[in-house]
Design goal:
3-stranded antiparallel β-sheet, 6 helices, about 160 residues, Secreted protein, 5 strands, globular
Length: about 160
């Protein structure tokens, strides 16, 4: 991925002249209101595989990052011959596109995903659905004893833990 330096900011407009002493100038409504807080969209989510991917050297890679999927990520695999021959292969190709980091591997691709343990593949498929379908990895739940509502964080939890 190529990174470039941020562009230099545009020149700021010249400030309004300062009113003379004793002159009460009208204050603009925009100046009286605090700046609006801009919400940032979280696009990458960390995870930890239940078992881990074992590379050729025997190193186990468990910690990773998955990014939100784009429409392109879901459409491109449909043209893949492997997916056309076996629709079950779709999740392997798709996960190979959206996993941005796995342990110390220099790159993650569908060949790595297809060599993962079945439990790790199931975990990643579920994690993909959580972050893309619901938009977050939190779930609203209710205590079975006192009926008090609260949220639990699902992202990054291990398979079988809730």
């Amino acid at each position: 991925m190529r990174r470039t330096a941020p562009a230099a900011p545009a020149a700021a407009p010249a400030p309004d002249p300062v009113p003379a002493a004793g002159a009460a100038g009208p204050q603009s409504p925009a100046a009286a209101q605090p700046p609006a807080r801009q919400e940032q969209l979280r696009t990458e989510f960390p995870f930890q595989l239940p078992r881990g991917y074992v590379d050729e050297a025997g190193t186990v890679h468990r910690d990773g990052t998955m990014r939100l999927s784009t429409a392109r990520d879901e459409l491109v695999p449909l043209r893949d011959v492997r997916v056309q021959e076996n629709p079950a292969y779709l999740s392997v190709v798709l996960l190979g596109r959206v996993i941005t980091r796995l342990g110390t591997l220099p790159m993650v691709h569908d060949g790595i995903v297809e060599n993962m343990f079945a439990s790790d593949l199931a975990f990643l498929q579920d994690f993909y659905r959580q972050i893309n379908a619901e938009g977050h990895t939190r779930a609203a739940v209710e205590c079975p004893h006192c009926s008090e509502p609260f949220e639990v964080e699902l992202g990054g939890s291990r398979l079988g833990e809730s």
